[in-house]
Structure formats: structure tokens, C-alpha cells
Design brief:
It is built from 21 helices and 24 strands. It is an alpha/beta fold and 678 residues long. It folds into 2 domains: 323 residues, Carbon-nitrogen hydrolase (Nitrilase/N-carbamoyl-D-aminoacid amidohydrolase, 4-Layer Sandwich); 318 residues, HUPs (Rossmann fold). α2 packs parallel to α3, α8 crosses α9 and α17 packs across α19.
Length: 678
């Protein structure tokens, strides 16, 4: 294995923060017991190499203490519990956020306390206090008033932290600390912030402001009371909120041991990333729970750079109102051997076509394609749509889209001119499938062999036809495109392109051949999804009609799905079977689509893509490396083809159109990116 790749085995930081939500056992008002339980779960988190663990709201006392919160003994007991947790944290790399009632200036605040390595890094009071809670607690909004502002910037202890903004100072648990709802904490390459319970239910939660100021992870210490359908509502809220703010969100709510005198606390815990749940626990458990997930901060930052969060600064989010606490030491993300062995998140091997929600995804994509083609056909006022049909996946999908489009427009299907153009490598399987499908769909069918024209062309340019090189292959693709363009002129139509996003990314198309059309309906769809769309159409849209030979459209489509992907530019073998299998030449499309997704959408480095691919696939390391190098080289070298690609609809978050899909100069060098995996 190359030296660079060998060293990757020892690397522990790919932009992940190992995070956890903990629900400990709790005894109401028993602060010593609660502190011990928090330390026990924190120890488990430390063993799992967690960097950030979040405990429930008021976890030192229990959230259902009622008027006991007004007892000084309970308040002091919570402070003593915090002291024990602080002492426990010495020498440990895990950052803990625990909940406790904190007195300040004759008021009591419901706070999240950030503890790391024997230090209280900051105290965050709850902002949105319910009517019930006002009986005991004041709002953290008090700290945003000018009278508690510390102007200027200064360094504490010479080098450990940098402070600025609106903040109070407090001596708590034997330490001088900061107290404010607007605290931002640095943790290696990550910035996190804290909100509590009902803060997230506010019309504009504090975490929205935190995210705008740079917090990539939000911790929520909660004590949510469980009622019918509350869990569904909570998940919907956290999903939407983490997506809106493009953040990681760690949620831990009070559970077993809280008083059930009037309410039940289910102990819900979950970890989210940009609208996706990474982990959750099972509610209503007697035993304590600890759920762990690796939040990809690099991914969040990549998405933020392309979002309004990167540029807006609405009223109320002035940076001067924030107090920033940065660690000068390298506290990093998850570290050690366990990180390489186990990643606490699922790495989807087929991000363009995940199994979950595929039905809805296919339905929507086809609707986008059909609507786009309808608009273009109607706008131009053309009489026909001309498509080259090979019997392969891409041309099949384009034909199905065209059929659905003309049906919606009220046109007769004979206005689709489908042309099959057998060449030197065309097999009986693909030719028969092409004809059977065209006839079954009721479109205008034409067959034009390209063999005579190509043979004449070889003679004209003095090319030996027995030499099966790029000239031999590309001449066929260009001949087919010329035929389609001329038929489009002849019939008053446009050529509907069939090339897909994967081929565009790799440059796996003949320049001025199949690379070109008048409208490319598949240009936003990767190969793995093309296959899924054709299969979905077979099972949901075209299930009953039959061709003249008695084959159902469904059976034809499913056979096309099972046909090896090939341009069929080289002669078939002695058995008449496809000799030129694309994935043997350029690599597995499932790998390339994985590479495309992570490189384009998240700006992931090849090194990180390699790391993720090893987690997602069963391929051996050398296979992944081989095709990753191929991807990087071809993606850069073939940009000139994408720079002049035809119009076509973008259907997902990843697009390669030079008109906003992915803008890259054709002369960009791949050196830096190739060296990342050598």
C-alpha cells in the first residue's frame, strides 16, 4: 500500500466530532446520586472516545423538583455535584454538558454547564421560560442587556481562552466562569453552542442565532413531558431545525426517575445532522442510555458555504453580543484506534438512490424530467422529439420520459421518432429490446445501420477498420449523432439527449457524439439512479401494455435493467455477447457515483472519500484506490466536455452544468487532489 495511504490508518480526524446524548438514572433532589450517575455515563462516553456528551436539563437535581428549587440546600447540593463532576473530568478528553439550577444576582437560572478537563468552560442559562417555570427560574435574556456587557477582548490565564461580548461573570463550584445564553465554545475544528428544553420550540430559537454566528453543533438539554404524539412532533421539529440551520443537533431529555406525579418523562435522546437522524434511543427505559454518533462537521461547513448562513447577518445576531471561548490546545474529534475501526454513523453506499424513500424519489424525479421536456418542446414549438434508442438504460429512460411528456401535452406518440442505429458491436439482445420497446410504446420506429457510413468514413480518413482504437469507437458515436440531428431537422424536431450525470463526470462520452444533443433530459441523473428509475417505471408506470411479440413493457424494461452496461462499439464475442463492458473499463458506477456525490456536494478531499468508501463498500482497498484515482484524473481532464454540455434539468442537489451546477475551469490541474491519495 502506498505510504500516504498507510499513514491514513493512523489518522483520526476527517472532520468528525464524536457526540453522545446521555440519559442517566435520576433521583429527585438526590444530587450526590445524580452526580455519580452522570460520571458513570461520562466514563462510558470517554471509553467510546466521545468528544462531546450532553445530559438532560437539570440533570443534577431532576427537573420535576417543583418548589424544592427554592430551597437553598438543593441549590448548594447541585453545586457540590458539579464540583464532583469537574474533578471527575480531570485528565479526560470528553466535554460534558450537564444541567443544574445556578444562582446569579439574586435570581435562579436553569442552566447548561460546560465542563472539560477539570474546568467549567461556561454556563448557559435557558432563554425561553414557560409560565410554570417562572415560578422558580429567570430568563437568560437578562444577560443580553447592556449593563452586563464586558467591552473589549482579553485573554484569560494567558493563553487558554479568548473572550468577547455580552456576558456575566460568576464564581461557581469553586471556579470563576462566564454565564450567558450567547456563549460559543471551540472544540478542535468545531464550534458548539447550548440551548435548553423549550428554547427549540420558540419561533426563532437561540440556536438559529448561534448557527449564524458559526456554531456547527447545538446541544439541547431538555426535560420534555411526554404526551400522545409528542415524539412525532419532536422528531419533526428537530429534523426541520437541524436542516434549517445546517447543523448537528444533540438532544437529551429527562427520563426514568423523574416524578410522574403529573407528567411522564420518556428519556428521549437523539443525534441529528442537517435533517438526518444519526442515532436515537428507545424511550421509556428503566436503564440509563448512551447513544453515540459521529457528526461530520466538514460536511456541514461545505453545505453552509453554499447557503444563506454564509452571508446573512439579520437584526439580533450582532457578533458583539457573543462571547467566544476557544480552546488553545488541540482537543480534536474522536481519536485513537477505535475511530478507524468503527464509525458511529451509517455511510450510505448509494447516496443518489438510497433504499429509504426511493419510491417517492423516483416519482418526483420523473415528474421533474417530464415537466422540463414538456416546457422545452412547447416553447420551441417543434413537431417531433428525436431519440436514439440502443436498448440500454440511458436511452430507455429518455424514451420513457418523452412518452410521458407527449402524453401530458396531448400529442400522439408517433411524434416521438425513435431511431435504433446498430453498429459493429450491437448484440441481438439490445437490438431486440430496442425494437420491442419502441413498438410497445407506440412511437415512430426507425432503424438505420451505421456500418456502411462508418466503413466509408474509415476509407475516407484512411483508417484501418481492424484497429479498434478511439477513432474506431468515436466515429460510430459521431455518426449516430449526425443521423439524429439530421432527422430532427428533417422532421422539425429536437434531439433528446440520453447521457447521464455519471458519464458527464467521467467524460465517458464522445465529444460531438453522444455528448451532444438539443436537450439532455438525463444530465442530472447518475447511472445508479438511472437503473433505479427504469426499474421503478417498469413496476409502477408501464406494467400492462404488450408489444406485438407478446412481451409486456414491464418485462422488456426489466431485461434492459439486467443488461450489462456497454456502448457496444466493439464487435461482440464469438457467442454474440457484449464484449465491451463499461464498468470493466472505467470502474463500477456505484463507486464513481459515491465519489461524485461526496466530491461535488460536500467538497470532500479524495483522502476522506477513500476513508468513507472503505466504510460503505466491501471492495478491497486497492480497488477503491484504483477507481478513485481514475475518477480524480478524469473529472479534471474532462471538464472541457462539461463546459459545453446542452441544457437539461437539474433534479438533485448535485449537478454538473457549467451554468451553475458545478463551475470549474477546463484548465484546472488535478495535481493537488491526486497527491491526496498517492
Amino acid at each position: 500500500m502506498p505510504e500516504k495511504i498507510q499513514s491514513m490508518e493512523n489518522m483520526n480526524n476527517y472532520g468528525f466530532i464524536r457526540s453522545a446524548a446521555a440519559v442517566p438514572a435520576v433521583r429527585i433532589a438526590d444530587t450526590a446520586f445524580n452526580a455519580a450517575e452522570i460520571c458513570r455515563l461520562a466514563s462510558d462516553a470517554f471509553e467510546k472516545e466521545v468528544s462531546l456528551v450532553v445530559f438532560p436539563e437539570l440533570s443534577l437535581t431532576g427537573s420535576s423538583c417543583g418548589d424544592l428549587f427554592l430551597q437553598d440546600l438543593l441549590i448548594r447540593g447541585a453545586e457540590e455535584g458539579v464540583k464532583k463532576i469537574v474533578e471527575f473530568s480531570r485528565g479526560k478528553t470528553v466535554t460534558m454538558i450537564v444541567g443544574a439550577p445556578v444562582p446569579y444576582r439574586s435570581r435562579l437560572y436553569n442552566c447548561g454547564i460546560v465542563i472539560r478537563n477539570g474546568n467549567i468552560k461556561g454556563i448557559v442559562p435557558k432563554t425561553y421560560i414557560s409560565a410554570e417555570e417562572t415560578r422558580w427560574f429567570a430568563s437568560g435574556a437578562d444577560f443580553l442587556s447592556p449593563e452586563v456587557r464586558n467591552d473589549g477582548t482579553y485573554v484569560e490565564n494567558g493563553k487558554d481562552t479568548v473572550r468577547e461580548g455580552f456576558c456575566g461573570e460568576i464564581r461557581y463550584a469553586g471556579q470563576k466562569s462566564n454565564i450567558s445564553p450567547n456563549l460559543l465554545f471551540g472544540l478542535g475544528h468545531c464550534t458548539f453552542a447550548v440551548e435548553l428544553g423549550g428554547d427549540v420550540w420558540a419561533p426563532v430559537p437561540p440556536s438559529s442565532f448561534h448557527a449564524i454566528q458559526g456554531a456547527q453543533i447545538i446541544a439541547n438539554l431538555s426535560a420534555d413531558k411526554e404526551v400522545l404524539m409528542r415524539d412525532t412532533y419532536r422528531k419533526d421539529r428537530l429534523k426541520q431545525h437541524s436542516a434549517k440551520n445546517i447543523c448537528g443537533y444533540i438532544y437529551a431529555s429527562a427520563g426514568f426517575g423523574e416524578s410522574t406525579q403529573d407528567n411522564v418523562y420518556a428519556g428521549a435522546a437523539s443525534v441529528w445532522e442537517n435533517g438526518h437522524m444519526l442515532a436515537e434511543n428507545e424511550r421509556y427505559q428503566i436503564e440509563p442510555s448512551l447513544i453515540v454518533a459521529d457528526i461530520d462537521v466538514q460536511r456541514l461547513e461545505a453545505l453552509r458555504r453554499k447557503s444563506p448562513l454564509s452571508c446573512i447577518s439579520p437584526v439580533g445576531t450582532d457578533a458583539s453580543s457573543y462571547y467566544r471561548i476557544y480552546e488553545r490546545r488541540n482537543v480534536g474529534a474522536a481519536c485513537g484506534s477505535d475511530f478507524e475501526k468503527k464509525l458511529y454513523r451509517t455511510v450510505e453506499p448509494h447516496p443518489f438512490a438510497p433504499a429509504e424513500g426511493l419510491d417517492e424519489r423516483c416519482r418526483e424525479i420523473l415528474s421533474i424530467q417530464v415537466s422540463a421536456l414538456m416546457t422545452r418542446l412547447n416553447h420551441i414549438g417543434c413537431r417531433t422529439a428525436v431519440i436514439g434508442i440502443s436498448g440500454g438504460l440511458d436511452s430507455t429512460l429518455a424514451l420513457l420520459v418523452a412518452v410521458l411528456a407527449v402524453d401530458r401535452l396531448g400529442w400522439t406518440r408517433d411524434r416521438i421518432v425513435a431511431v435504433t442505429m446498430p453498429g459493429f458491436g450491437t448484440t441481438s439482445r439490445t437490438k431486440n429490446n430496442a425494437w420491442d420497446l419502441m413498438e410497445a410504446l407506440g412511437v415512430t420506429c426507425r432503424e438505420i445501420s451505421i456500418v456502411p457510413a462508418c466503413e466509408q468514413h474509415f476509407r475516407d480518413i484512411t483508417h484501418d477498420s481492424s484497429v479498434h482504437d478511439a477513432t474506431y469507437e468515436n466515429s460510430q458515436a459521431r455518426e449516430r449523432t449526425q443521423i439524429l440531428m439530421d432527422i430532427a431537422n428533417q422532421t422539425g424536431g429536437i434531439v433528446v439527449g440520453t447521457g447521464d450525470l455519471s458519464e458527464l463526470a467521467l467524460g465517458w462520452a464522445t465529444y460531438n457524439g453522444d455528448h451532444m444533443s438539443m436537450y439532455g433530459v438525463n444530465g442530472g441523473i447518475p447511472k445508479t439512479l438511472v437503473r433505479g428509475l427504469v426499474k421503478w417505471a417498469a413496476e409502477n408506470r408501464f406494467v400492462s401494455s404488450e408489444d406485438p411479440h407478446g412481451r409486456s413493457i414491464r418485462s422488456i424494461l426489466l431485461d434492459i435493467v439486467d443488461t450489462p452496461i456497454s456502448p457496444e462499439l466493439l464487435p461482440a464475442n464469438e457467442n454474440g455477447e457484449i464484449q465491451q463492458v463499461t464498468e470493466d473499463l472505467v470502474g463500477p458506477y456505484e463507486l464513481h457515483d459515491f465519489f461524485i456525490y461526496n466530491f461535488v456536494k460536500f467538497g470532500s478531499s479524495p483522502e476522506k472519500i477513500y476513508f468513507l468508501a472503505r466504510k460503505a463498500f466491501d471492495y478491497d482497498d486497492q480497488t477503491i484506490l484504483k477507481w478513485l484515482r481514475t475518477f480524480v484524473r478524469r473529472f479534471f481532464n474532462q471538464q472541457f466536455k462539461r463546459s459545453c454540455m446542452p441544457d437539461g434539468p437539474r433534479v438533485g442537489s448535485v449537478g454538473l452544468s457549467p451554468r451553475g451546477g458545478y463551475c470549474m475551469p477546463s484548465d484546472a490541474w488535478s495535481t493537488l487532489f491526486s497527491s491526496d491519495i498517492k
